[in-house]
Amino acid sequence: AFPVPANAGPSKAWAIDTSLSDQFNYTYTSSNTSGQSEFFSKWIDFNLDGWQGPGATQFTSSNYYVDGGKLTIFASKIPLAFQTWNYHDFFYRTMYSSYITSITELGPGTYTEVMMKGSSTPLSSNFWMLGVGNQTEIDAMEIYGDSKYPGYDRFNPASAVHFFRNGHTANQLHHPRDGIDFAATWHRYGVYWVNETKLEFYYDGILVRTMDLAQNPIDPTGQNLNEPVRIILDLEAHAWRGVQDVPTDAQLANSSINNMQVDWIRTYRTVPASTNDWESIAVPASPGANKTWVLDSSLSDSFNYSLTPANLSGQAEFSSKWIDFNPDGWTGPAATVFNPNNYFVDGGALTIFASRIPLANQTFNHWENLYRTVYSGYITSINELGPESYTELMMKGSPTAMSSNFWMLGRGQTEIDVMQIYGDEKYVGLDRYSPASCVHFYRGFPYRNNQRHHRNNGIDYAGTWHRYGLHWISAHKLEFYYDGQLVRTLDFTQTPIDPSGLNMNEQMRLIMNLDTHGWRGPEDVPTDAQLSNFNINNMQVDWIRTYRAAP
Asked: Is-contact 259 165, C-beta < 8 A?
């Protein structure tokens, strides 16, 4: 694991931005597209403004793949019949390559770094950023893979900024170090975008350049780096080198040199360095060999703000992470109707409560054959997560016949119930002493599931605070932790459940909600007295935290 080499600043800390980070630990090739959805959840394989590439380059969506834990971008010869004229650079496009750019934008207060190996050809292997208005460009690193031009060769990676306002102004600097061949070996390249006028460039964790545009102006307009940018990874033939320096057919056909590779990319954003409620509690699961746990702040919350009808000061913070309805329109099971008015954040906790639906507003649930008589809240995350993650919350359930739930839902085919607990004692084994974990697969019919209850020495899980966590190791293996203790390991290779064998291969959203279950029937819906008793009509979450395994 590599610590972030840059200082986040006074009273600030680094938080991973998973939408701009990728370990490429999935497969997306022409013969295996299992990782396609994961790749395209973060990346686009073309330039959004239609740019086809510089010099002899023609960008195509066919010249990259993800395999063996790496993104590979490669160059290949364009058949003569398909070569076109580059009117901007005045020669033919004779070489295919690919252009990978992020969906999410970034700006000041970020640190982005890649582990990368360049192509050993005259091509330029690049890690850069382009403004959404095409007015600014930050080149974190570009490296030519040959030695034809001293200073612009495999030993001299370069950083640069470009402004395309009132013409083109730029400032480039090369960073040779002890004769290191940067094209043929793996290295880390990072840029800390401090603010609109300041950048810091880090190579292999070493500060190689500080660019202060306030002290050394480049942009004639003085606007500097004021537009959001997208990350770009690509391989190019640069026009200034001319036709004679386009790789030969033999070089383009040689897979040992015709490509650049990215092992991982990570982006952090600065956040206030507040003390989270969980900081003294260790993650009980191991992230794996040569990995460390990195907090995903977009899926973590201490709820140390207020969002109530009388105090909306925390609304922006809450809405930056959570949605208070089901995005697919599901309104709730059995007697439940999800209502965005049935939760609040106050006193350092999220509270989700149930209440009676007025008789005039009650509707019939035709699917489960009973009336919807109870309002409750449904809170789900904006961001998704997948394998190589650990998620845990501190929660207290409702001591009623309702089910207090912490679970995850995929894109229609999978579900993981980290914990659900009924708050009464009517059904032994399905009661307040028996929290349950479960997995569900909705591929084909009938759907499959596997549930297990976890009684522990008569502990009342509905009326007291407990921690419930899931270590999502891979698509084929899960570990469930209650109060930091491993209570269940589910290995689908040993215990097959999903007939398709795909298992937990979907990205999922976190969900916290309180509901009634149809199998219990209308007689077990809480009474009016229970629903009006605030001591029992709710579940509470003190905090929730999510970590991703990172190098």
From this structure: no
Q: Please report the pLDDT score of residue 1 as a whole number.
A: 61
Confidence at 251, pLDDT banded by 50, 70, 90: very high
Asked if 449 and 497 count as a contact pair (C-beta separation under 8 A), the reply is yes
> How high is the pLDDT of residue 397?
94
Give the Cα separation of 490 and 418 in Å (integer): 12
Quick one: which H or E segment has residue 37? helix 36-40
Tell me the C-alpha distance between 100 and 127, whole Å: 10
State how far the Cα of 403 lies from the Cα of 341, in Å rounded to an integer. 19
Tokens of 359: 């008789």
3-class DSSP state of 226: coil
Comparing CA positions, the residue from 518, 457, 449, 517 lying closest to residue 487 is: 457
Residue 400 near residue 537, CB atoms below 8 Å: yes
Beta bridge partners of 393: 468, 544
| pLDDT interval class at 388 (50, 70, 90) | very high
What does the H/E/C string look like for 281-299?
CCCCCCCCCCCEEEEEHHH
Q: How many other CB atoms are found less than 10 A from the CB of residue 262?
A: 22
| DSSP E strands, 196-291 | 198-203, 206-212, 229-236, 259-272
**Whole-angstrom distance, CA of residue 228 vs CA of residue 283:** 35
- Residue 472 · residue 478 · CB < 8 Å: yes
Alpha carbons 77 and 281: distance in angstroms, whole number: 55
Residue 484's Cβ-count burial label (10 Å; 0-12, 13-18, 19+) is middle
Ramachandran class of 335: left when φ > 0, alpha when ψ lies in -120 to 50, beta otherwise = alpha
In 423-452, which positions are buried (b, 16+ CB within 10 angstroms) versus exposed (e)?
bbeeeeebbbbbbbbbbbbbeeeeebeeee
- According to DSSP, residue 384 is labeled -
Distance, CA of 420 to CA of 134 (rounded, Å): 50
Phi–psi pair at 245, nearest 5 degrees = -105, 10
Tokens at residue 120, please? Answer: 């050993």
| Helix (H/G/I), strand (E/B), else coil: 4 | coil
- Please state, as a whole number, how many other Cβ atoms lie within 10 Å of the Cβ of residue 90: 11
- Give the list of residues 6+ apart from residue 391 with CB closer than 8 angstroms, or none: 299, 385, 408, 418, 469, 470, 472, 510, 544, 545, 546, 547
Please state, rounded to an integer, the average pLDDT across all residues of the chain.
93
Look at residue 273 in the predicted model and tell me its pLDDT.
59
Cα angle for residues 222, 228, 232 (degrees, 5° grid) = 115
DSSP SS3 for 167:
coil
367 by DSSP, 3-state: which? coil
Q: Quick check: 30 and 61 in contact, CB under 8 A?
A: no
**Cβ contacts of 100 within 8 Å, gap of 6 or more:** 43, 44, 45, 64, 71, 73, 232, 233, 234
Helix (H) or strand (E) holding 110: strand 110-117
Predicted confidence (pLDDT) per residue in 91-121, tens digit:
899 999 999 999 999 999 999 999 999 999 9
